[in-house]
Design brief:
Layout lengths: L13 E6 L15 E7 L8 H10 L9 E6 L5 H20 L12 H21 L6
């Protein structure tokens, strides 16, 4: 699946780091670095304008560290090449999704019937609890 970006991000702006993957993998798991971490320095990027960088910072805040570096990790596959491709694909999806304009949300009112159902359910629940109580002695 290819993702269309408003404008492509050159490969030289992406850095890749490898490490040993967690989980099962037999003899391979302790000696082959198959986990791939894609690092994208948002602040140093020349392919994005100021508004796009701001939108990415806002929408991908949990993935961007204090230095302004976006991290995408892939360890799904058993080969470094496949994980590298998966991380790149995920990166493009994240960027494309974060840069798409979303229509403003229109406020709506809670329907009268929904309010009525909620209050009726509360009344039934309160009644049930009231009937469970021991009667008060006068």
């Amino acid at each position: 699946m290819t993702v269309d970006l408003p404008h492509p991000i050159p490969g030289d702006e992406l850095d890749f780091a490898t490490s040993r993957s967690s989980g099962p993998g037999g003899q391979n798991v302790n000696k082959v670095e198959t986990r791939v971490t894609l690092l994208f320095d948002l602040e140093a990027s020349s392919s994005l304008n100021r508004d796009e960088k701001e939108r990415l910072r806002e929408r991908l805040a949990s993935r961007i560290n204090k230095e302004g570096v976006l991290r995408v990790v892939s360890q799904k596959h058993r080969t470094q090449k496949a994980n590298r491709e998966a991380a790149t694909e995920r990166f493009h999806e994240l960027i494309a999704d974060a840069l798409t304009e979303r229509p403003p949300r229109r406020r709506t009112r809670t329907p009268r019937a929904a309010k009525k159902r909620r209050l009726e359910a509360k009344r039934r629940r309160a009644d049930l609890k009231r009937r469970r109580r021991e009667p008060l002695d006068d």
